[in-house]
Specification:
It is a single chain. By secondary structure, this protein is mostly beta strands. The chain has no helices and eleven strands. Strand 4 and strand 5 form a beta hairpin. The chain is globular.
């Protein structure tokens, strides 16, 4: 099983990033996928969740209207589109499959 996040980096406030998480080794289309983040010294928090068919999504209040989660079951990939980024979005971002499998994370830093 592999979950590989990418797309992180340095961005100024108001900027955008798109994080893909490429998955393999399990039946991707059968799993709810979730993005989490963890900032230094803070608890890991749920950012966004998408159902197995993509028809159901949920977001943390702090990212509603700015972030969009999506998935492509033909590519075994889940995405997190992040717009209007803020310094408080700075964190390591992780994808998770069914509360069972985790990626290694990708760092997002929003600086002014």
């Amino acid at each position: 099983v592999q979950l590989v996040e990418s797309g992180g980096g340095l961005v100024q406030p108001g900027g955008s990033l798109r994080l893909p998480c490429a998955c393999s080794g399990f039946t991707f289309s059968g799993y709810t996928m979730t993005w989490y983040r963890q900032a230094p010294g803070k608890e890991r928090e749920l950012v966004a969740t998408i159902g197995s068919t993509g028809g159901r999504t949920n977001y943390a209040d702090s990212v509603k209207g700015r972030f969009t989660i999506s998935r492509d079951n033909t590519k075994y990939t889940v995405y997190l589109q992040m717009n209007n980024l803020k310094p408080e979005d700075t964190a390591e971002y992780y994808c998770n499959a069914g509360n069972r499998y985790w990626g290694q994370g990708t760092q997002v830093t929003v600086f002014s």
